[in-house]
Design goal:
Blueprint (H helix, E strand, L loop, with lengths): L16 H12 L7 E5 L6 H13 L5 H8 L6 E4 L8 H11 L9 E5 L7 H12 L5 E7 L7 H4 L3 E4 L5 H12 L3 H10 L4 H9 L1 H15 L4 H37 L13 H41 L12 H10 L2 H19 L4 H14 L4
Parallel strand pairs: 1-4, 1-5, 2-3, 3-4
Helix pairs in contact: 1-2, 2-3, 4-5, 7-8, 7-9, 8-9, 9-10, 10-11, 10-12, 11-12, 11-15, 12-13, 12-14, 14-15
Amino acid sequence: MHLVAPSLPWADVWGQPAAVAQLQRAAADPAHLSHAWLITGPPGSGRSTLAAAFAAALIAEPDDLAAMRQVLAGTHPDLTTLRTEGVIISIKDARALVERAYFSPSLGRYRVVVVEDADRMVERTSNVLLKALEEPPERTVWVLCAPSEADLLPTIRSRVRTLRLREPEIDDVAGLIVQRTGVDPQVAEQSARHAQRHIGMAQRLATDPASRERRASTLRAVLGVHGVNAAVEVAAHIVSLATEDAKALTAERDQYERESLLATLGVASGAAVPPALRSQLSALEDEQKRRATRSLRDGIDRVLTDLESLYRDVLMLQYGRGADLINRELTAELDVLARDWTPARTLTVLDRISATRENLEQNAAPTLALESLLITVASGRTP
């Protein structure tokens, strides 16, 4: 049996040799190929990268490197990728995806439909995919990506073949960051540890001193919360930092998209937009607002992940397992907290962090949700 060479399309897949081997077999031999796959793994484990490599191996002939590169670039006509930059995947987008799934491959061996962040589908959106998964079109392969099987409906899970990715070791992530960026190995190790093995976040921390400083100052501010007033101030500060970060990540892209759209519509720079064209500009602005909302939510979620690591460390110290701390730089402060608090109080805070994350997913106001969390931190009781 001929397997695709490790160089392409798998060159960017890192740390998942078992998964690569399984997908290579599936791409090379129809006997090992399922019509629908679910790739699961923690954030930063490389789900999307692996899905793209699998799509390239399915669509292109084993020796057609040009077609593989086209798939990996996301421009091949037989690849359809759905990713959302909003809070959820819309039912409209899901219907359009299913419609495209019924097209026959135009150039490649298969048509591949990749759904990134499949966990962002609400129930009625998931139901749109069911028929396509139950009665798959010939030579169409679905690849869904999500953190875990539990993030999808049972009806979806029963119709896909699950491939679970392994979580890389901290030293492996640090080594990869050094290889990619040339940063100091100690900075890479600290970043990999603080990012909890999330490769993308580790690379950002390693290469952006401002990000490292924001993380450190946020954790120290939370450790200093001892009353309601401090809880309110720190919650506002966290939301402010996350908002600024979100704007920094989206502002340049928003401006480029606006200018490109106006140029396409034939509107000169600085000229008034004709009434007949304003609906198209409004549609773009609405999409950008949804993207900004998701970016803010993702930023706050990263803060919650950091706080989980903080109080997880406290719990580890309380149970005498201080050799495996994520936030080693705060050991002195965490030791004090571990002595002053009971394990029950630490667990209450960890439970509240999980509840805060769920509340934000249900569109709770970020500042109010964080205030409630930090009041629990200060008092040890849920408001």
